[in-house]
Write a structure and sequence with these properties.
homodimer, mainly alpha, Arc Repressor Mutant, subunit A, Tetracycline Repressor, domain 2, 2 domains, 0% strand, DNA binding (chains A, B), HTH tetR-type domain-containing protein (chains A, B), DNA-binding (chains A, B), HTH_TetR (chains A, B), transcription (chains A, B)
């Protein structure tokens, strides 16, 4: 890993490089990320690039981590509430509303990166494994809390329930992106909703 | 659109070009698809390429259609059976088994292409809209049949049910690809399974 910036100016430069690389990936795919293109887009030189990143692979993996940081920061207030059916419903509503706001064009930044990069190399795949684990952790914790407090049946596998919810979000975002309508995301989440209601001790 | 080949030799050449482009996209992303690279990989010249495809965009959209043809051809026998809960379960099992066989590395060929290309241009996006519609059509027909024969409740929106199933497959394949385990696909399909059972006139 390259140097971690210690000054505000350094953090800004590193952030500008990451934003430029993320933008290139989103608009033209990962093969478009050449060091030349990143330098041009970020307005930095090769020595600055190499100060913060070991090489192109390190830069791309850093984009993955930065993207997860952004997605999680945006969802954090709602993810704190997923310890109840009502809290999970509010989180779902926010995901659908977000899909609407962006005109459902961008899809999921992490999922889209993962589809492109997941099969590349082991370190990059591992970055996505970590990314999805970080995203899923608050949901697993919330579901476990619901189980411990008796809201979910004791025989329910909360990890499986969290997995299917993550899959519904990812698949729903992909279809919403293609079909340009957030309905797809709402429909997708109905599967997770049905599984969640099945898992309740007393059906609503 | 370029010429449709009328001879076996022509079909073979066009197919070789499509395979080469699909392979480049899968291994290096869509930005790696230059006409030079496709010609080298397929062992054809520029004039042959332009005989079958108008330009690079036409080639890429043709890859989308060819990929859907392959996925649907592989699933066709099972898709004919999705007019019952048992038939849908067999289709789900085959999808999971397929994820296992490929070591869950490739993910969904259509979904992976869609994540990369869905936001590019309107004609390409439309190719994916058509692709998902063709894939979803037998499922919608099967669910409608189940509704007409009284197996599904009359108030169930079969299109929504099909949408959430497609989303579960796509999201599950993405997570299975990242986590390198087909369990993720099995878990993802449990959401669709729960929604499907909720829709039955008499719960199993």
């Amino acid at each position: 890993m390259g140097h971690t910036p210690t000054t505000a100016r350094g953090r800004a430069t590193r952030g500008r490089i990451l934003d430029a690389a993320a933008d290139l990936i989103q608009r033209h795919g990962v093969a478009a990320v050449t060091l030349d293109a990143v330098e041009r887009a970020a307005g930095v030189g090769r020595s600055q690039l190499y100060h913060y990143f070991d090489d192109r692979d390190d830069l791309i993996r850093s984009v993955v981590h930065a993207t997860v940081d952004k997605v999680l920061a945006a969802q954090e207030p709602l993810l704190l509430e997923v310890g109840s059916l009502a809290g999970i419903e509010r989180w779902f509503d926010a995901i659908v509303a977000n899909g609407t706001r962006q005109d459902a064009v961008g899809g999921c930044a992490i999922g889209s990166l993962a589809s492109q990069l997941g099969g590349q190399d082991e370190l990059t795949r591992q970055a996505f494994v970590d990314a999805f684990a970080r995203w899923e952790a608050p949901l697993i914790a919330g579901l476990r809390w619901m189980q411990e407090s008796g809201e979910l049946r004791p025989d329910v596998d909360v990890t499986e329930l969290a997995d299917l919810t993550m899959a519904a979000i990812q698949g729903g975002l992909l279809l919403a992106q293609i079909r340009r309508t957030p309905d797809q995301l709402r429909h997708a989440l109905n599967g997770a909703r049905a599984a969640l209601k099945d898992a309740l001790t007393s059906p609503p």
